[in-house]
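pinned: reference chain
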Amino acid sequence: MQPDAVSIRHNRAPAQSLQALHIPEALLKIQTVIAVTGLSESTIRRKVAEGKFPAPVKDGTRCTRWVAGNVTNWLRAKVTA
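pinned: its structure tokens
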């Protein structure tokens, strides 16, 4: 039995270095945002829809990225709240 594509996608290591967080303008992949926040992809997307998480930017028709500075600011706000 093969695991479904969704579980494979979420269980692999981020293909992007977490060092990208040190560059505020860096564009983060969803796997990196998941690794940094500890949230699932569905939770991140739900929070974006509710206006409770930074919205991603589209970098093409099938490329969605989050600005590193926006994600780190969101994390800092969660810690101080």
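why pinned: DSSP finds four helices and three strands in the chain. Residues 15 and 31 are 7 Å apart (CA to CA).
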